[in-house]
Amino acid sequence: MTDAAADRLAIRELIERYSDALNRRDFVAMAALFTDDARWRVDAPFDLHFEGAAIATSIAAMIGNYAFLLQMPHAIAVDVAGDHADARTTIHEIAQAADGASGLNSFGLYHDRLVRTAQGWRFAERRFAPGYLDTAPLPGTAV
Questions:
Q1: 17, 34, 61, 125: which has the highest count of C-beta atoms within 10 A?
Q2: Of 89, 69, 93, 90, nearest in space to 78 by CA
Q3: Is 129 domain-assigned?
Q4: C-alpha 91: how far from chain center
């Protein structure tokens, strides 16, 4: 495997580990995926912005009222330039509020800036651009 292919594979794994940590609500694991000065944003209509250590704790607080949440990454495209990289990931996310009164079914794109660190590739910036949003209660039951 070439160095470039190894880098792309490591970055894809980082992106997948983010979704895995979110799905398992393992915010300690999630925090380790970011640089200390990283930024995490969600574009309109949410307009959220967190930095550094506040990223994982803020995401934990945001999803705390969901009984069920599943984020699925698709179509990961990675461009590597030395110790920096850009990636785009299509995301599908579904969730159901604990009281069942609302849900979440969304699609969008993460635009990532990544850097190689001594610990491996890490997110320097994650920006989510929503493309579709449905907040109607999900018809199923969280188990």
A1: 34
A2: 89
A3: yes
A4: 8
C-alpha–C-alpha distance, residues 92 and 96, integer Å? 14
Nearest-CA neighbor of 133 among 112, 100, 102, 111? 102
Which tokens sit at 52?
A: 């550094």
- Residue 140 falls inside a structural domain: no
CATH number of the domain bearing residue 49: 3.10.450.50
Quick one: how far is CA 72 from the chain centroid? 9
In a domain, 41, yes or no: yes
Instruction: Please write the tens of the pLDDT for every residue from 22-36.
Output: 999 999 999 999 999
Confidence band for 1, pLDDT divided at 50, 70 and 90: low
- 3-state SS track over 93-104: EEEEECCCCCEE
The identity of residue 17, as a single letter, is R
Is 58 contained in some domain? yes
